Amino acid sequence: xxAAPMTSxxxxxxxxxxxxxxxxxxxxxxxxxxxxxxxxxxxxRVADINTPETSEPDCAYExxxxxxxxxxxxQLLNAGPFTLExxxxxxxxxxxxxxxxxxxxxSVGAALVREGLAEEWRGYRREWx
Length: 129
Fold this sequence. Notes:
Number of helices: 2
Order of helices and strands: EEEEEHEEEHE
Shape: globular
Distance between the termini: 21 Å
CATH architecture: Beta Barrel
Radius of gyration: 14 Å
């Protein structure tokens, strides 16, 4: 189920055209998976969610759901200006910048959770299979 479009607010100032990251994709704006993307040369982890793995999924279901989450994150990032809101720490253990991505004050991650493509971040990765 895809929710109604999120409307940008006056504080939403970040914007780019995102594609799927790949061998020739620019690191200026591309989605790696459903919760990680490159933006302006920074690798960003969406801090409030966890999505299925796409690079090394444990089963076909995880691979399929991960691909859908990646496509939907790309679509949401391309839907208009957004805000990168800092969280309690700047980076995760992999060196990715941590932000909650919002549009009009609503979490993009929460939209993915509502659509069944992500879960709220609980401090660990879940098994999707």
